Structures are given as C-alpha cells and as structure tokens.
Amino acid sequence: MKTKHFPEGFLWGGATAANQLEGAYNEGGKGLSIFDMVSFVPKEERGHDIEMDVKSDQELEELLAKKDEGNFPKRRGIDFYHRYKEDIALFAEMGFKTFRMSISWPRIFPNGDEREPNEEGLAFYDRVFDELAKYGIEPLVTLSHYEIPLHLVQKYNGWTDRRLVDFFVHYAETVFNRYKGKVNYWLTFNEINISTFSAYIGSGILVDRVEHKEQAVYQALHHQFVASARAVKACHEIIPGAMIGCMLARMEVYPETCSPDDVLAALEEDQKNLFFTDVQVRGYYPSFMRAYFKENNINIEMLPGDEEVLLNHTVDFLSFSYYMSMVASGSPEKIKEKGNFFTGIKNPFLETSDWGWQIDPKGLRVTLKKMYDRYQVPLFIVENGLGAYDKVEEDGSINDDYRIDYLRAHIEQMSEAIKEGVDLIGYTSWGCIDLISAGTSEMSKRYGFIYVDQDDYGNGTLERRKKKSFDWYKNVIASNGEVL
Ligand code: BG6
Asked: Can 86 be counted among the known catalytic residues?
C-alpha cells in the first residue's frame, strides 16, 4: 500500500506518560501522585474494566497505610527514570521526529502548592530533553497526565478548589522558563474530559466529600479550563513560537439506526464530547452546555475575567486520542458495551480488541474531517494504538502482525483525510514502548513497538526487545507514510 499525502515535516512518533513509564515513584524528591495510589486488581476480581478510582478519605488512608505492600504497578512503571537513554536510542533508531511524554507534576512540586520547585526533578527532565535533542527528536510535553500531586487531593479536594489554578499556572511557568529552547510543543491537560468518567483521576476529587458530584466535576473542569488558558498565555509569553494544544479523549458516536431518535442521541453524545474542545479552541462555553447546566441544577462559579481569559488564550492546535468509535441509541434500555471510558451499543460492523474496544479506522477519518470542519485549527493525533497480549517466541521474536494491521489501517485513513483537506500535523502512537495500562494497571496489555520484559506483578528483567512492528514503523517514518 502506498500513500503520498503526508506533508513534509509531519511529526511521526510515539506517546507515553510519566506515571505509566518512569517508575522511581519515591526517588529524586518526587511527591506522591494520584496514580501512585491505584493498585492492580486481577481481571477475575475486577468489578469493571477500568479500576482507577479512589473515592474517600478512608480508602486513601488505607492505601497510604499499606506503604509499599501490595501491587502498585504505576509506582514502578518500566523504569524509564533510569533507562531513558536506552529507550530514547531505540526511538531514534525508529526515526521518531517527536516523542510525547509528560512531566510528573509532583516531581517538580512534590506537594503541588509550594513556591520553590524540586531541583532534582527539574534536572531529570533536562537530562531527558538533552538526550532527545542529541537525536533531533522534538519533545511533545503534557503538563498534566493524571499526575496530580496527592497532597492537593488531601488538602484541597483537587480541582474543586480554585486555588489549584494558581498552583498549576506556577508549575507551568516554572517548566516553561526552565525548558524554553528545549521544548516547543506542549499540551495542557491530557484527555480533559476524563473527569466526567473518573473524578479522582481527572480532577483529584474524592467524591465522598462532595454533595453534588456533577456540580463538583464541572466546577473543577471550569478551573482546569481557566488554568489551561492561563498556561497558554504564559507559554506564548515565555516561549514565543512554541505551540500549545489541548487534548481530548475523542469519541466518534454513530446513531444505531437512521431513526431520528437515534440520530439525536448520537448528536447529543457527540456534543458532550466536543464541549471540552469547544471551550478550549473556540474560547467559550457552547449554548447546549449552558442549557444542560440549567436543566441539571449545575451552577458554575466564574470569576470576573474568566470568560475573557478563555476567549483570549485559546490553543494553537487540537490534539486527541482515538481508539474506537461508539454507537448511541434513542432507547436508553439498550445494553451497553464497554470502551476505555465510554459505553455504547455494539457495532456489528466492527471487530473488537482483546479488551473489547471496537476497532474503527474509518471512524478516525470521520472524526478528523468532522473536527477540522468544526474548528479549522491544526489537528494532532497524540494517542492511537492496539492494546494486545504479545507472545515471545522461542527464538525471542515477537510477531505482532495484528498491531501492524491496526496501525496501517488507521494511518491509511489519516492519509485519506489529509488528501481530503484536513490539516493534520502529527501522529504519536500510544505506548510506543510497552508500559503500564492506565485503565487496568496491567503490564500485559501491550501497545509498544518495543517489548519490555515485565509481568503484571513486576517480575521480569525489564529487558527491551524489538517487536516485528519496530521495523515496520521505522519504514513508515522513513518513507513519510508512503510505505505502509
Ligand atoms: C488514554 C490515556 O486514555 O488511553 C493513556 O491517555 C492510556 O494514559 C491509554 O494508557 C490507553 O488506555 P489503557 O487503559 O489501555 O492504558
């Protein structure tokens, strides 16, 4: 298959997050983060497919009392903290133009509310950025990827408290000042819409402490919108020429049938998903959301100046994750299927992954076209990929043809979308090196081109090994998407 549509300078690469990768959770002066408290639950015992919520002070106290006992995979990650040189050399070998990573907020501000940053944390990322620079790889850095300092949860109940806006902006300004000249692409909040699925992971909220959960979540989100816009402003002032974007867990929603009820249900689901980018790209709350707040007794407290900040400091580009599409029905009693954070009706035309996620490459093209029509700003796919069980053969090879097929099909659709006029500037496939799953804390749910020898319980040598997809992706990049 040959395609010729990717523009020169297209940013090919891979994506990760500190909490799933670094490990060393208590080294270098790092404070605890929300995900350090999420333990592994074996599949048979899992109530849901996603296990990542802490809901009350009592639960948190019990987890803290456990100290290092128990299985907390995100605390160990894949030890990137000590092995980043080896890993970056492998990314360079694949020809990465960019590497998406996050800065762990509690590595820089262990409690989140201090004035003085932790120099050891800052120095670590200096080393990582310098290593990337050695190979000409542009870092794409997420400021907040589910790494809220735990202290901010305990003391302030997370983003429900307006003071977090200032703490976050101070953190953002600190890293912009430190890394100007080294980092030119930034993202504010990873999957900013996650809070409506997990208030704890998205906003650091212990839901037992609030009376009206939805009210608390949307208020917390308002604080994040303001913090994000102020970070955009600071980024433009401190690093002229840098680009800073928002990040959405995109969910393309199809109606189950052409019944107007189903079409309306799908439209409303879609609006709820695009609300977040409406605020961050257009700079104001859409009227459908104001109507929704009114109907559901949600009152967003906005301070004077908030609306102005949102309007004047919109993002330079829109980034998003795309793993699947969903189906909506006008009949609420229909059985729902799972997705990462979403549920919908099973689409009979699509296959599913080992984790039940509906694989839909063409949906990526649909979504690219729809979002570009709506916003007219550059788009960046910063997550996409297949979580699968991989097998190491006796000769040591890992033949992940299923992953190649998945990625090829998605990249083909990206190429078509570009041909059809979409301004797509980059693609970083998720988990370019195997890492800990966000949703299930599994190591065995693998996305990488690089295999990491570790199991769900932390057994293994951590040795890195190239999968078949490694050379395939290397060719994709070398040919700028022409050879798939
Ligand atoms: C996205 C997150 O939702 O999906 C990543 O931004 C995450 O952090 C990815 O890892 C895949 O989800 P999971 O649960 O398979 O790790």
From this structure: no
Within 6 A (CB) of ligand 1 lie 17, 20, 190-191, 249, 321, 340, 383, 387, 430, 437-440, 445
Q: Give the 3-state secondary structure of residue 192.
A: helix
Average pLDDT, the chain: 95
Residues 117/30, Cβ–Cβ less than 8 Å: no
Instruction: Out of 22, 147, 269, 383, pick the active-site residue.
Output: 383
pLDDT in tens, 250-299: 999 999 999 999 999 999 999 999 999 999 999 999 999 999 999 999 99
Going from the Cα of 106 to the center of ligand 1, the distance in angstroms, rounded, reads: 20
Query: 49: exposed, middle or buried (C-beta count within 10 Å: 0-12, 13-18, 19+)?
Result: middle
Instruction: Give 274-287 as a DSSP string.
Output: HHHHIIIIISS--H
| Domain 11-478 -> CATH class | alpha beta
Q: Sign (positive/negative) of CA torsion 104, 108, 110, 113?
A: negative
Q: Give the residue from 18, 2, 136, 21 showing the smallest Cα distance to 448.
A: 21
CA–CA distance, 148 with 167 (Å, rounded to integer): 11
Residue nearest to atom 2 of ligand 1 (CA): 438
Cα separation, 321 vs 150, in Å, equals: 25
Cα–Cα dist 84/126, whole Å: 12
Residue 351 has what pLDDT? 95
- What predicted TM-score, i.e. pTM, was given to this entire model? 0.97
